[in-house]
């Protein structure tokens, strides 16, 4: 019996340790769910807010909760420093974005003028359509800078993989506001087949069900302790009954002899 108690104690310690890990993973998924729902609420709130002058929003480093607010900026495009942003997605389409600095009376900010889909197997674009000349007015969504390894955020040969205002600023040689604008409307109208980037689909994602799965794993582990101990006790009772029957049979045989 002592060996059984030791075996059960080790089992309980193992399952409880594993259960703690599973519960923590479940709670982590619930935290991710809360964060995602918070971002979704901020996106809806920003989308429904009236269009603001960009100077009222780009007063601080742009973060997730600033995204998708519509702003307006007026200035002239710096076509000489335009960049093609490679390997971009827009809904189900894959292609490029065209990023052009917009010089305004209050400073310069980066504007993604839109998306151009590219057919699979075609060579990547190295240059994009020219922006409108003269003064333009841009209305678009606030976007935060994207982050990645140096090779992805540093422009090279007129292209870049991620839009990071700080890294692009270094290549421009003049300061730009943090983050950028994803244009939804440019006046005068631009040419080249550019389309706005779609607002991301707002959903809670799989986090809730992932959390439930981790909690279920913890519950199955605890139930397994009960099943395992019950099986050991049943086997022990069966072994004792068999041993008693053997002893009884031996004693009966001796009396007969």
Can you characterise this structure?
This protein is of the alpha/beta class and 257 residues long. The protein has two domains: 81 residues; 119 residues, OB fold (Dihydrolipoamide Acetyltransferase, E2P). Helices cover 42% and strands 23% of the residues. The protein has four helices and eight strands; from the N terminus they run αββββββαβαβα. A five-stranded mixed barrel has the order 2-4-5-8-6. A hairpin with a 2-residue loop joins strand 3 and strand 4. The longest helix has 50 residues.
Layout: helices, strands, pairs:
Blueprint: H1 2-48, E1 52-53, E2 70-77, E3 83-90, E4 93-104, E5 107-117, E6 135-143, H2 150-153, E7 159-160, H3 165-172, E8 180-187, H4 207-256
Parallel strand pairs: 1-2, 3-7, 5-8
Antiparallel strand pairs: 2-4, 2-6, 3-4, 4-5, 6-8
Helix pairs in contact: 1-4
Protein name: SURF1-like protein
GO cellular component, one term: plasma membrane
Pfam families: SURF1
Please give the CATH class of the largest domain: Mainly Beta
Tally of helical segments: 4
> Sheet bearing the most strands, described?
5 strands, mixed, barrel
Number of strands: 8
What do we call the CATH topology of the largest domain? OB fold (Dihydrolipoamide Acetyltransferase, E2P)
Global geometry: elongated
Strand order of the largest sheet: 2-4-5-8-6
Going by CATH, the architecture of the largest domain would be: Beta Barrel
Helix content percent band:
40-55%
Q: What fraction of the residues are assigned to beta strands by DSSP?
A: 15-25%
Radius of gyration: 32 Å
Order of helices and strands: HEEEEEEHEHEH
Subcellular location: Cell membrane; Membrane
Family: Belongs to the SURF1 family.
Main location: membrane
Membrane topology: Multi-pass membrane protein
């Amino acid at each position: 019996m002592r060996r059984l108690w030791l075996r059960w104690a080790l089992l309980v310690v193992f399952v409880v340790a594993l259960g703690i890990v599973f519960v923590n993973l479940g709670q982590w998924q619930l935290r991710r769910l809360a964060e995602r729902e918070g971002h979704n609420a901020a996106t809806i709130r920003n989308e429904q807010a009236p269009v603001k002058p960009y100077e009222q929003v780009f007063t601080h480093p742009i973060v997730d909760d600033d995204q998708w607010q519509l702003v307006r900026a007026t200035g002239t495009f710096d076509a000489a420093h335009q960049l093609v942003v490679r390997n971009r997605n827009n809904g189900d389409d894959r292609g490029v974005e065209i990023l052009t600095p917009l010089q305004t009376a209050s400073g310069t900010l980066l504007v993604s003028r839109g998306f151009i889909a590219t057919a699979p197997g075609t060579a990547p674009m190295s240059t994009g359509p020219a922006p409108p000349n003269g003064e333009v007015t841009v209305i678009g969504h606030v976007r935060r800078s994207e982050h990645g390894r140096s090779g992805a955020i540093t422009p090279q040969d007129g292209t870049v993989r991620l839009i990071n205002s700080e890294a692009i600023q270094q290549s421009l040689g003049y300061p730009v506001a943090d983050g950028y604008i994803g244009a939804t409307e440019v006046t005068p109208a631009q040419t080249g087949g550019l389309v706005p980037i779609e607002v991301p689909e707002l959903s809670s994602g799989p986090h809730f069900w992932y959390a439930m799965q981790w909690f279920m794993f913890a519950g199955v582990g605890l139930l397994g302790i009960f099943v395992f101990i019950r099986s050991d006790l049943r086997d022990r009772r069966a072994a004792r009954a068999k041993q008693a029957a053997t002893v009884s049979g031996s004693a009966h045989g001796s009396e007969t002899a």
